[in-house]
Design a protein that fits this description.
Blueprint lengths: L1 H23 L7 H23 L7 H5 L3 H32 L12 H5 L1 H21 L9
Helix pairs in contact: 1-2, 2-6, 4-6
Length: 149
């Protein structure tokens, strides 16, 4: 996941720099760089959310949860992970549905199948289910459910 984020971030940066260069230096700017940067940005955001979930870096209201006694805190953390797991399942399921609906649709400039664009939904959903499911099991076993290595 980390390597994929680095590669997508590099592609995103290069596409934007090439877009800026082609707009201000060349007579005819490249039209495909805008679409490529949009696709890369969406993939970067969704996979970044999965990576943040893995490292427990998502925004949360830890202030109130940390004030709870250990027993109720464990229940609240388990409920949070269950909700994230359910959300991940919804992303996985409906992402696959969206991919099926857009298989024959092509992007306007790059002419890529739009299903490659929507593929980020089930991929992210899979990681959400994997990471929150793992953390939920740890919490239910009485462990802290901390950062995954």
């Amino acid at each position: 996941l980390t390597a994929a984020l680095k590669i997508i971030g590099f592609v995103l940066t290069m596409a934007i720099l090439l877009q800026i260069f082609s707009r201000f230096v060349m007579i005819n700017p490249f039209s495909w760089t805008e679409e490529l940067s949009r696709f890369a940005f969406i993939w970067f955001c969704f996979l970044g959310a999965s990576h943040a979930l893995r490292l427990k870096l998502h925004l949360g209201i830890d202030y109130f949860v940390l004030k709870l006694a250990p027993g109720p805190r464990r229940v609240v953390e388990a409920l949070i992970q269950a909700v994230v797991l359910f959300f991940g399942y919804l992303m996985l399921h409906f992402g696959i549905v969206m991919m099926g609906m857009t298989t024959f649709q092509k992007s306007p400039i790059l002419r890529w199948p739009m299903s490659t664009m929507y593929m980020v939904l089930p991929v992210t959903g899979f990681f959400f289910v994997l990471f929150s499911g793992y953390r939920l099991v740890l919490i239910l076993r009485g462990r802290d459910g901390g950062e995954m290595s």
